[in-house]
Amino acid sequence: MREDKHAEGLGRRALFVTGAAAALTLGSVSFASAEGREGETQTKTVRGTLPTGSPDFVYVPVEVPSGVREIKVSYTYDKPAVPAGTKGNALDIGIFDERGTELGGRGFRGWSGGARTEFFLRADEATPGYIAGPVRAGTWHIVLGPYTVAPQGLAYELTVTLTHGEPGETPRPVYPPERAAGRGRAWYRGDCHLHSWHSDGRRTPAEIAALARAAGLDFINSSEHNTHSAHAHWADVAGDDLLVLLGEEVTTRNGHVVALGTDPGTFVDWRYRARDNRFGRFARRIRQAGGLVVPAHPHATCIGCNWKFGFGEADAVEVWNGPWTADDEVALADWDGMLVASVREDRAWIPAMGNSDAHRDPDAVGTPQTVVLADDLTREAILAGIRAGRSYVAESQKVSLAFTALGPRGEHAGIGERLTVESDAPVTVRLEATGAPRCTVSLVTDQGVLFTSDPLPVSGTGAVEWRTTASYAAYVRAELRHETAAGALPGALAAFTNPIFLGRRG
Predict the structure, then answer these.
(1) Shared-domain flag, residues 336 and 200
(2) Given a cut of 70, is residue 13 above it in pLDDT?
(3) pTM of the entire structure?
(4) Are residue 278 and residue 366 in the same domain, yes or no?
(5) What average pLDDT does the segment 198-212 reach?
(6) 54 and 23 Cβ atoms separated by less than 8 Å
């Protein structure tokens, strides 16, 4: 084993900008020719220290000779004690092949963030999170992501092992079908933000599918952090009763976005910040691949989770993420403000959805779930329903809603639709609920909450009606909340709907 030492800090290394976030390239790691060394391995270890203020991404070039069957990478880094309130060390990792590190990901071969300490790639197989394929000769790049760096700096050790031999065959990927056996035009339940062992989750796709079925879901979406490696591993668990959509959770330093329902094999790059003005390019990439752009947990408090790119490119927004918490309450209020702005400016509105973001036990798949009115259980129909806002969000399969607005001449509109009536025409808003025992129903408009019901009976089944006009309420949406013991504080949500708009446009 040969050991090399990278320069301490960044002083004598080239700092460059990739067209996105600043990045640093260190000295290369070289190996001897692999010719005639069938089955042999070569290993090299490099060490270095990254100071506070390091670029978002640090690239370590690896010169791979021809005749390599497998590349394996492992790493460690120190985690010194830090003062209270100071962030310690956290270092992510991934790899790009000989096609390069250009923004857009042509050379992308995998990412595990901080979830793994080692990975391998070869033609026939790869560690979850990484893409199987031949290990071709050329300059590969291991990418390190210093997520946070302690005041003492981040000392790391990186070990690369090449195994020589015949490359083997790369299997042709098989993806899940884009259609399941639906019920025609109906309400379908889904959870579009889930993590398996292909990123930082602990469940296999098979385990997630079993939990989705138990939660009463009709569809799910693969959304691993910064990798599409799971796409070819869902076909065996999809079925007539479960539609599996494919996507990615694009995890940047300024917020996360779910690429929902993209074409199989679509990779969306994450190496940029809001100040780089690159998000629009990758939002278009998601839509060009047939998917939806859904900012996730926009007010989450974890580092890098708070959404800072604005909502101009959003097709929907994840207002409810996992068990109901204070940041979901903020996201709900912020989304309602966006609804008011859409009315004021007479522009398109952004629908809301909810997902579990489940990673491991005891995270519950399907808590919450988005219930979508779609023409059938197909990728195209489900995405169309979400995009149109024909949906509500429920804490579980037990909760079902029917929410409508009726005009004086029999005009009718449902969730996500517009009831076109004169401004002074009487409108009857009706909500029917099941599975929501002792929950109160609030009807929210552009003025705020204008109606709150008595608690529903213990059976959880009930209906409320409220009469209004379009001049009084530009839109109306419903919230069902649990009882609370905290006085004036609102209870946790059991469900909420997208709005019904009232009156003529403009």
Answers:
(1) yes
(2) no
(3) 0.94
(4) yes
(5) 98
(6) no
